[in-house]
Amino acid sequence: MSQFRTRLQTYLDKWLHLAGKDKTRPEDIMDLFAMEQLINACGNNLVVFLKERKPKTSDDIVELAEQYIDAHGQSGATQKGRGTRKSYIADHRLRLIQTQDLPGSNAENVISSDT
């Protein structure tokens, strides 16, 4: 079991390094998770649009996604069976703001604020 944990930690370190995030900053880790979740919630057309523009933060993703939706409408912006893209983006932005406003924000605060 300890080998598995070590392997997971290595993967996380590599993921953070490749994304240019600082593993000692909880805000960077939270932002990377938020970026991943936002991308995973998008339809194929929006994913391509976002990846072409190489956003660095979740705020960049939100801004680009809103531009895409304003220009193209909802078509291709969401995965089938999901709610509207703008409401999903707004929900994630609100969660990020709430967790960043916590004094001494850390991973424990983030986990407890989402439940």
Number of helices: 6
Q: Approximately how much beta-strand content do the residues carry? A: under 5%
Number of domains: 1
Order of helices and strands: HHHHHH
Number of strands: 0
Summing up helix and strand content along with how strands pair, one would put the structural category as mainly alpha
- Distance linking N and C termini: 27 Å
What's the helical proportion of residues?
A: over 70%
The description of the largest β-sheet is: none
User: What would you report as the Rg, rounded to the nearest angstrom?
Assistant: 15 Å
How does the overall form come out from the CA principal axes? Answer: elongated
Rounded mean pLDDT is 79
Low-confidence stretches: 105-115
Explain how this protein is built.
The chain is elongated. With 115 residues, the protein is mainly alpha-helical. The protein has helices spanning 2-18, 26-41, 44-53, 58-72, 85-100, 107-114. It has six helices and no strands. It has one domain (22-114). Mean pLDDT is 79; it is low at 105-115. InterPro entries: SCAN_dom, SCAN_sf. It comes from Elysia crispata (lettuce slug).
